[in-house]
Specification:
Layout (H helix, E strand, L loop, with lengths): L3 E4 L4 E4 L10 E5 L10 H19 L4 E5 L6 H10 L3 H18 L15 H13 L3 E3 L5 E3 L1 H6 L34 E6 L16 E3 L1 H13 L3 E7 L3 H14 L10 E7 L2 E3 L2 E2 L10 H6 L4 H8 L8 E2 L2 H25 L12 H11 L4 H21 L4 H18 L11 H15 L3 H12 L3 E6 L2 E6 L1
Parallel strand pairs: 3-4, 3-9, 9-10, 11-13
Antiparallel strand pairs: 1-2, 5-6, 6-7, 7-8, 11-12, 14-15
The structure holds one RNA strand of 74 nucleotides.
Length: about 475
RNA sequence: GGCGGGGUCGCCCAGUGGUAAGGCACGGCUCUGCAAAAGCUGCAUCGUCGGUUCGAUUCCGACCCUCGCCUCCA
């Protein structure tokens, strides 16, 4: 079996095959953040999912060229720059750094490229000029440049590949009321926005005068600059499918740069939203949690990651603090099994030439199925129970333990949970442990229990086993 | 209004035309001085109403509820 993925273009699950089998890497692009504020975990659900897919492609033997853009020029940013008096670079740098730190907290591998829109102005201008030459882009009275959907269609291209559009049936919204658009067609979108007084010092020179790029064209320029005019995978949140991704396709294919009948992107993958109380988590609704919020509540990044990858990427799911606590409990059980396995394995070395275990095979089958993580977790927890049972009966040899550990590490190379950070018990706790051991040896259980209670104050407890008593972090 | 998702155990979330996987929580038992951890074990008939079928949670139809996109958005 091969990896199968849902492709938004076909609206069905299909086998994933590289666009260029001879190339040394798969072109993989994920729309990144707009750096005007801290990201919330709804945003990060998509990025963690992208990380999971990348890791799984690598697990399946592919090399991946992972690109994630940073949108560092946009209306909200410009407003903030004007309000704070900071330079564009200072302002966006702060939130870019925060974003990358959060990504690391969630154990995401760093993308190979993190292009910033403002570093790609020449490429953006070049694309717009190409579109203009082909008659698909036009200048409006105010100096802005728009993309003509009608002209694009006139070239035999299809607008509406990701969504089913019936312009006649679209609800007439009041979206234009606040703006003085000078477009041929209401659905046309901006490629280049002419400078307006509110832009302050944020502008670039262009063949059309001073201005700044439209949002959609940025992703076309960065992705094609780094991955070529046709590449394998493009991901993003489901809200980006329309209009952002649809417009990206139109602009990119409108340039005519693609060769051999290949599309701009072969495989579009969209991640569903995270909900809070049944509603989309968003800045505007105010129902969001940032990674920092959760860290401040005492949760670990890996616990958040576990929750974010506990549900299938194409289904929305409700975020709750209770759910995060449930993730913490589940992860603790997994950690405990891995810790015991590590101890049992000791210095034993597994035979690396061994064929994949049934565990790994089942895990692979689950993720091959459109990244069915729910199924994968079921496989993992079956393995946990079975491993715990073997551990409990003492029937597991060090070499067998080492082999299981090796399998787990391969699986975790995809899930990316890592080991629980080791924490050294403070001297006070160690002293209390000895005190309790002494009391226990003297069969003074009242005293032993009292000491165990005292330990709680330090955030530790004690667990007895046949091999002695151990401190455990609460 | 148009388009696209959902409604499965207390909660989260898989899945299948032949009577439902996993996680969290909960109950019982084993182990333990007591706990904890772990193991064993118990715990759902799948939104409603019709239809197709030997048989539907799984297919079809209607309806109810809910979310998203159509405007910046992961």
């Amino acid at each position: 079996m091969a990896l199968c993925l849902f492709n938004s273009l076909q609206r069905r699950v299909e086998a994933f095959t590289p666009l260029f089998p001879e190339a040394d890497a798969i072109g993989f692009y994920c729309c990144g953040p707009t750096v005007y504020d801290f990201g919330h975990i709804g945003n990060f659900r998509t990025f963690v999912f992208a990380d999971l897919l990348r890791r799984y492609l690598e697990f399946r033997g592919h090399r991946v060229n992972h690109v994630m853009n940073i949108t560092d020029v946009e209306d909200k940013i410009i407003r903030q720059v004007a309000a704070t008096g900071l330079s564009l670079a200072e302002f966006t740098g702060k939130y870019t750094d925060a974003f990358l730190a959060d990504l690391a907290t969630l154990s995401c591998l760093k993308p190979h490229h993190l292009p910033k829109a403002t570093d790609y102005i020449p490429q953006i201008i070049d694309l717009i000029e190409r579109l203009e030459k082909r008659g698909i882009a036009y200048r409006a009275g105010d100096g802005s440049v728009y993309f003509s959907i009608n002209k694009y269609r006139g070239c035999g291209c299809r607008y509406g590949q990701l969504v089913t559009l019936d312009p006649e049936a679209q609800r007439q919204t009041e979206r234009v009321s606040g703006d003085s658009y000078d477009k041929d067609n209401l659905a046309d979108f901006a490629l280049w926005k002419a400078r307006v007084p509110g832009d302050g010092v944020v502008f670039w020179e262009s063949p059309w005068g001073e201005g700044r790029p439209g949002w959609h064209i940025e992703c076309s320029a960065m992705s094609m600059a780094l991955l070529g005019p046709s590449f394998d995978l493009h991901l993003g949140g489901e809200d980006l499918a329309f209009p952002h991704h649809e417009d990206e396709i139109a602009q990119s294919e409108g340039t005519g740069l693609q060769q051999g009948g290949r599309p701009f992107v072969k495989h579009w993958v969209h991640a569903a939203h995270l909900l809070v109380d049944g509603k989309k988590m968003s800045k505007s609704l105010g129902n969001f949690f940032t990674v920092r919020d959760l860290l401040n509540k005492g949760f670990q990044g890996r616990e958040i990651r576990f929750l974010l990858i506990s549900a299938h990427y194409r289904e929305t799911f409700n975020f709750t603090l209770e759910g995060l606590e449930a993730s913490r409990s589940a992860l603790a059980r997994l950690d405990s099994t891995v810790a015991q396995l590590t101890e049992r394995a000791g210095a034993a070395n597994p035979d690396n030439t061994l064929a994949p275990s049934p565990f790994e095979i089942a895990f692979t089958e689950a993720l091959d199925d459109d990244l069915n993580v729910s199924k994968a977790w079921a496989v993992i927890f079956d393995w946990v129970r079975e491993t715990n049972a073997a551990l409990a009966t003492g029937s597991l040899s060090p070499i067998a333990a080492a082999e299981r550990l090796h399998a787990w590490r391969r699986v975790d190379g995809v899930m990316g949970l890592g080991a629980r950070p080791q924490e050294e018990a403070p001297a006070e706790a160690l002293a209390l442990l000895e005190k309790r051991n002494a009391a226990k040896a003297a069969r003074d259980f009242a005293q032993a229990d009292a000491v165990r209670n005292e330990l709680k104050a330090f955030g530790w407890t004690v667990e007895d086993s046949k091999s002695g008593s151990k401190l455990k972090r609460l």
